[in-house]
Description:
The chain is an alpha+beta fold.
Amino acid sequence: VFPFHKYSGFCGRSLVQILIDDLKQHAFLGSLQSVANMLYINVLYSSNVVIDKQTCHKQIKVTSEGRGLCLSSEDRCIPNDPLRFDQLYCALGSVAIKSGQHYWEVDVHCCSSWAVGMAYGSLQRRGRDKGAKLGRNRSSWSLEFQDGHLTAWHNDRHVALPVTAARAAPNRVGVFVKYQKGRLFSAVQTAVFDRAHHQFTEPLYPAFRFFSPKDKGHHHMEICNLSL
């Protein structure tokens, strides 16, 4: 609530300017609170996430001691595995989340299109239908950036999220899970974009997806090292 009575002696133009400045101050304080909250989460709940190579599509190469993913245009000569995604360019983390609170971040600034989120281990690995796509089924949740659009997905439903000149394509994505409370938060550059509430029934795994090696731009994601 703004104290309009303080500005009664100003002309209309000055009144607008003061109100805008006041709004900017509130926005700035809100941003500081968001940063403080994310730092608090980072310190207390940061988790060591590495990629499970057995789950990676053949065109995904794992780098940086299990923290980096790079999509190439060629298949790697590796054996088939029932855990591996055979059609979609996806990968899962190696450690299951079964309880507690966990936070991790992934750097996506070198990736032109991506999806980051969580999935049950029972997520389908074969084919290209909705059962295997992150966020297009009951077994996964994802924050997705493609063709300049940012969207949050679960069970084939999505919410469009704002990408403007002031808030451009994100460079880093954070995921915060409260397993027992059934909450999943996705944050981009300290702004919480999506809050999913669900009663989790299986262990959760960090999940990643590239869209196509033919897309213009780079195809690399890196899990951030949050240790102090």
